[in-house]
Model the fold of this input.
Amino acid sequence: MPTDQASGAGAGSIVRSAAQNTPLLLDIRNLQVEYLTPHGPVRAVDNVSIAVQSGEVVGLAGESGSGKSTLAHAILRILHPPALITGGEILFSGKDTLTMNMTELEQFRWRSVSIVFQSAMNALNPVMRIRDQLLDVMQCHGISKAEANRQAVRLFELVGIDPQRLDAYPHQLSGGMRQRTVIAIALALNPPLLIMDEPTTALDVVVQKDILQQIVHLKERMGFSILFITHDLSLLVEFSTHIAIMYAGEIVEKAPARELFTNPLHPYTVGLMNSFPSIRGEKKKLTGIPGSPPDLISPPGGCRFHPRCPRMMPECPVKAPANKAVAEDHTVACYLY
Amino acid sequence: MNKIPNPSIAENPGTTGPLLEVRGLTKYFPMGSIFRTRQVHAVENASFTVKHGQVVALVGESGSGKSTTIRLIARLLSVTKGEILYKGSNILKSEPGKASLAYRRKVQMIFQDPFCSLNAVHPIEHHLARPLLIHKMVKNRAELRERIYSLLSDVGLNPPAEVASRYPHQLSGGQRQRVAIARALAVDPELILADEPISMLDVSIRMGILNLIAQLKETRGIAYMYITHDLASARYIGDEILVMYAGNLVEGGGGEAIMNDPSHPYTQLLLSAVPDPQSGLRTRKEVTARGEVSSLIDPPPACPFAPRCPKVMEICRHSMPARTTIKDDHWVACYLY
Done:
């Protein structure tokens, strides 16, 4: 990627922060994460810049293997080897998290940023009562046991579970209740930013809707921001203020949610939009996207989407297009624009 | 075409009458101890028909009994009560115990998870050769190979010779599901039971699989039962939609009729829960139903949706409503009508 254009993308986020006069809540700049495998490094996150302002819900959409969960784990610095952050910056309220030491990190995690993991089933310890798991988080951060107990009851009321269920084991709760429990744990220390990594993927549509409404309600009440990761673009359009589309480790398009929905530009975004049948209106044939997502061990050269792209041009396989601002807050990495 | 031993399900005498008719299909799973026997009412008194070359979408939440229903039709589970009529003949009577080879040839199944439904230690050609050999569809090796290659190209896996020699782990999820479809097609079935065939796949390749199913319906006249929890895809592919809740079919009819005029409160709830980017999550008129699916263990003889239903009446708690016709094929089991 040419450096002048790359810094152009970074400049976009700086403009956004300058207008506010306060640093962005979360500002990721040109982040790069690699998995060092025996077959060579796999660049799961490649030159990703994304920003979250306070009060925003930023959606990150991508298919499995596009690097969205790796990005979430990188923000909290909970990546395990062989994953390694090999470049870029992650600034939280202007503070670089990549230079934090262990003690700072312990305070940063959960107090500043907490995460709701994909599978509540696996995020909860099956042999510990829910109450102990909630208390554990709070006591780790220096809250007294009595206070933590009071807070646990308050949190359960907040997410809509009867506080009597605090003494249950995870297997005694339904899938929806488990997911609410995980959200309660994430909110335990009232962090300004919540990362949600596919929080509703394993749930039924009705429960999913219920939980999303609850999240919106809690957000309005407690004022946290959300980085919402999902593969379901239709969900994001409803729910978020900004959306970033990730493909094969790169962000290919970023725009306000409405703008992205009404005016998707990147052929991948257009293809994704074409992958969700609607429940109303004219029934039309949808094409989806031909081919399958690439193997990141040997990604296609140039634009990584070119083998599946219906509008490929001669330069696409040769050189990757840079992020280009096409409208206010709307950037796209494609030669068409 | 080889000889079919069972005359009752021999080649279709004409397209009069439905392909499959299910009457009062019921499945109870035993549980509990010898002192207190209890039963899980997985499917309760389900009746419906599948016409030749028609896609019937069976929609419901997880645990609603939709997979059990098609497993009963595939005869993978024994039926507690009820009749399955295939082309007018009661196959539970004519072939009690194990289903005949002829029936198994005519009714094929596609499973949800293409990562589990293919055997990891065998190449793709093995998976396609098995049904062809078991059902004695080919005379010699050359014909076998030819059939395998033509099946693979029918489902869009090219070049077939190369794909045939690969192992499942070398294929992507979408390609594996195409192999599973080819395996079902190998024996010229008349009815394919598809159990959430796209829910494990990446968003961008789902439409490809749905379009393949629709295309095979058109070109080969295959009928489908398509199981899903996603109403939008049910509408996209289904000629008819059946809605299942806690083991009971609560509404059925043409796809458009159900979408435009959902009558059962549960169908209304399901529809309102589908993410719909056209209207925001916050602004939408809400159909709310609190609580969760009631227990299926020895349920009382009531409408199963009564505890959650916003329009519940006293009678709903005491008996299960019968079916009422709304218009043409569209029926609902609810006391409101």
Remarks:
- The longest helix of chain A spans residues 3-20.
